[in-house]
UniProtKB/TrEMBL annotation, chain A:
Top-level taxonomic group: Bacteria
Protein name: ABC transporter ATP-binding protein
Keywords: ATP-binding, Nucleotide-binding, Transport
Keyword hit for Flavoprotein: no
Protein species of origin: Mesorhizobium jarvisii
Automatic annotation (TrEMBL), chain B:
Name by which UniProt lists this protein: ABC transporter permease
TM segment ranges: 41-65, 105-131, 152-177, 225-250, 270-292
Pfam families the record matches: BPD_transp_1, OppC_N
GO CC aspect terms: plasma membrane
Keyword terms of this UniProt record: Cell membrane, Membrane, Peptide transport, Protein transport, Transmembrane, Transmembrane helix, Transport
Protein's membrane topology: Multi-pass membrane protein
InterPro entries found in the cross-reference section: ABC_transport_permease, BP-dependent_transpt_permease, MetI-like, MetI-like_sf, OppC_N
GO biological process per UniProt: peptide transport; protein transport; transmembrane transport
Subcellular location field: Cell membrane
Gene3D superfamilies per UniProt: MetI-like
Gene source species: Mesorhizobium jarvisii
């Protein structure tokens, strides 16, 4: 299998704060890879650095065989798209769903916009009835579906997911995760998914990386995590914390 | 129209599932309109402005006398009467007719200043706010320089350099009134530039130019409209002030500020000569202020369910 994303010695510095301290990572084409860690461990920053939204100080990022510079070209955005954590903040408040979905098509000069928008809405389980609504007329789950439709409309091969369900309640979470699973299978996408919820990661991902304060702690497969075959203390603590309160 | 059709139209406008771009847009406008018209005072303001527009359009029909030629022999400085509702001035001209025609110049000034100053301010502010860094520093220091001068003094300097006249007054007022708009637009831009929805557009590969023009500017426009409307009264007063100082509209143009200036010589004995245009300025300024307040409530994206 070829590598979809290769990150090597990546450092990200925000105003003298080292958010990432030389992280390396390899995501194979077609797999679903998880990033786990507590708040502030740098997992979202790693995602944003790949997307070009964080200032890279050193290290290299390679996507589908091409090494990325500081400026990304349009072709990159047709390969890589992202779904944000907060569905309430990731949709423009003054634009209808239609406008939101049209924008990427207009930027990349697609001609068959009407058809693509209809198809994208169908794919994420929103009918045409939602097409001319504003963000404030949608629920959290519906918003996240729109965000997924927007990410998919350019037909990328890699999807970056930044805690796509953490702002949703449990039942809606399951719906959105199933939708993502389904889309991945149908389109043979590569996922790089950030979450602090180990259950979601073991459900969604084949391999994962545990991160702590800007560094990689260890690489595991989902099976290893489920069987608690971990080598680092930090991961063990994380596992214990995720099991929650144990009755004595 | 029966009550049923009105009701069904309202339902169509307020539909949660608009079927077309048009319906979504109209529905949104209708919600804003309902919020606006619920505010009585704002409605009064709107009526005043509509009245001003109608009067300006129909001045030729409504005015009983010529605004520029008076009867010097028989009708100088007459008190208000049935024949001359607002009296006459020192050249025997009917003041009512002059005020009706003067509304055209008031509108001319207000509209021209708004369409020159607001886009400049919007552009400078959004570009500075989105670009940040050096661009921001340079644009904002220029804005600061303009803001450091008292408005009327700067306008006076410009008119003195350009020469008196209503066009130059408009230009001078426009040049002095854009900096607050730039400030507002920049502040709004700073609050949205790091939001996820702008990041999402960046991730689609949109150029900075496209992001500013199509995604950031629409968010700044409503607060800008409110501010411009509230400033209209100030613009009218500045224009009147320039007219009063003899640097704005030149006689015999029936501009309200100029009329007050020419009436000040007899303000104690023939108060109506200066009083009538002063009252007109008061009413129109009040109208714009009330309208602006109402628009702030109706358009503010942070209020209600927008």
């Amino acid at each position: 299998m070829t590598a979809a994303i290769t990150v090597d010695g990546l450092e990200v510095i925000f105003d003298r704060f080292r958010a990432l301290k030389g992280v390396s990572l390899e995501v194979r084409s077609g797999e679903s890879f998880g990033l786990v860690g507590e708040s502030g461990s740098g997992k979202s920053t790693l995602l944003r650095a790949i997307a070009g939204l964080a200032p890279v100080a050193s290290g290299s990022i390679n996507v589908n065989g091409k090494t990325l510079g500081t400026r990304r070209d349009k072709a990159f955005y047709r390969e890589v798209q992202m779904v944000f954590q907060d569905p309430y903040g990731s949709l423009h408040p003054r634009q209808t769903v239609d406008r939101l979905l049209q924008e990427p098509l207009a930027i990349h000069g697609f001609a068959d916009g009407e058809k693509r928008i209809e198809r994208a809405l169908d794919e994420v389980g929103l009918g045409n009835g939602f097409r001319f609504r504003y963000a404030h007329q949608l629920s959290g789950g519906q918003r996240q579906r729109v965000a997924i439709a927007r990410a998919l409309i350019l037909e990328p091969s890699i999807l970056l997911l930044d805690e796509p369900t953490s702002a949703l309640d449990a039942s809606v979470q399951a719906e959105v995760l199933n939708l993502l699973e389904e889309v991945r299978r149908r389109r043979k996408l590569t996922f790089l998914m950030v979450s602090h919820d180990l259950a979601i990661i073991t459900h969604m991902c084949e391999r994962l990386m545990v991160m702590q304060s800007g560094e990689a702690v260890e690489n595991l497969t989902a099976a290893q995590l489920v069987a608690h075959r971990v080598t680092e203390d930090y991961t063990r603590n994380l596992l214990r914390a995720s099991e929650g309160f144990v009755r004595a | 129209m029966s009550a049923d059709t009105i009701q069904s139209r309202r339902d169509w406008l307020l539909s949660e599932r608009p079927a077309s771009r048009m319906q979504a847009r109209l529905g949104r406008a209708y919600v804003a309109w309902r919020r606006f018209s619920a505010n009585r005072l704002a409605f009064v303001g709107l009526l005043i402005i509509i009245a001003l527009l109608v009067i300006a359009a129909l001045a030729g029909v409504l005015a009983p006398y010529s605004p520029t030629f008076g009867d010097l022999k028989n009708s100088r400085l007459l008190a208000p009467s049935a024949e001359h509702w607002f009296g006459t001035d020192d050249l025997g001209r009917d003041i009512l007719s002059r005020i009706l025609y003067g509304s055209r110049w008031t509108l001319y000034v207000v509209i021209l200043v708004a369409i020159i100053a607001a886009p400049i301010g919007l552009l400078v502010g959004t570009v500075a706010g989105y670009a940040g860094g050096w661009t921001d520093a340079i644009l904002m220091r220029i804005t600061d320089i303009f803001l450091a001068f008292p408005k009327l003094v700067l306008a006076l300097a410009f008119v003195a350099a350009l020469g008196p006249g209503i066009e130059n007054a408009v230009l001078a007022i426009a040049i002095t009134s854009w900096p607050p708009y730039a400030r507002i637009a920049r502040a709004e831009t700073l609050t949205v530039r790091n939001s996820d929805y702008i990041k999402a557009v960046q991730l689609m590969g949109a150029s900075p130019f496209r992001i500013v023009l199509r995604h950031i500017m629409p968010l700044c426009i409503s607060s800008l409209i409110v501010r411009v409307t509230l400033d209209m009264a100030g613009i009218i007063l500045t224009a009147a002030g320039l007219g009063f100082l003899g640097l704005g509209a030149q006689p015999p143009l029936p501009e309200w500020g100029t009329m007050i200036a020419s009436g000040r010589r007899f303000i104690l004995d023939q108060w109506w000569v200066a009083g009538a245009p002063g009252f007109a300025i008061l009413i129109v300024s009040l109208g714009f202020n009330l309208l602006g307040d109402g628009l702030r409530d109706a358009l503010d994206p942070r209020s209600g369910d927008q």
